[in-house]
Amino acid sequence: MILTVQKQITNKIFKTSTNKKKERSEFLSKLGIGMAVVCAGCAISSCGSKGSDPAPSNNNGGNNNGGNTSGTSANLASEITNIGDSKVIGDAIVVRLAAGNVPASFTAVQVACTHQGTSIAYNLAQGIFICPNHGSEFSTSGAVVMGPATSNLKVYTVAINSGILTVS
Fold first, then answer.
1. CB-side exposure of 106: number of CA atoms within 13 Å?
2. In Å, what is the CA distance from 7 to each residue of 17, 19, 20, 21, 131?
3. Interatomic CA distance for residues 148 and 80, integer angstroms
4. Per-residue pLDDT tens for 105-131?
5. Burial 46-57 (b: 16+ CB within 10 A, else e)
6. Which of 73, 104, 126, 138 is the most exposed place for a label (fewest CB within 10 A)?
7. What is the pTM (predicted TM-score) of this model?
């Protein structure tokens, strides 16, 4: 009799433990699938380009002298005065690379990343343009340094007349 009761208890424990293992396994499986769906949704939504992307920031020391990111020119007496400073002029981002108010002291490339159109920013410490969306990197001459972008940035011509910088 004692053996029969002990056997019944053992069977119940084993059966309960097996059911719990199945339940736990099923729960973890469903949880994993649910998390994968959520992560995939987040990844897909972050890949879209936004029409309201903010003007590029000037990470690591750049300065756009008051945040003026529109217009068709820059007055070099008050804007883009320091190496690493930048300004968005039309569809271009202009960066001062060297001292002196001559065109060779500046670079101007398209502000929209060629991957998905997000506004790029100049990183003074690295001497490159970086897209904050997916990390594409471009040289100061607009060449792709690191993807996912595969096309170079358009390069604009810088002209300076009486201390006023324009791009074309």
1. 31
2. 15, 18, 20, 21, 68
3. 29
4. 999 999 999 999 999 999 999 999 999
5. eeeeeeebebbe
6. 104
7. 0.58
Q: And the tokens for 72?
A: 């068709």
Q: Which CATH number fits domain 73-167: 2.102.10.10, 3.40.50.1820, 3.40.50.300, 1.10.260.40?
A: 2.102.10.10
Contact criterion met (CB below 8 Å) for 3 and 9: no
Domain ranges of the chain: 1-46, 73-167
Residue type for 134, please? Answer: H
How many Å apart are CA 149 and CA 128, to the nearest integer? Answer: 14
Q: 154 versus 63: which is more confidently predicted?
A: 154
Say if residue 108 is exposed, middle or buried (CB neighbours under 10 Å; 0-12, 13-18, 19+).
buried
pLDDT for residue 72? 79
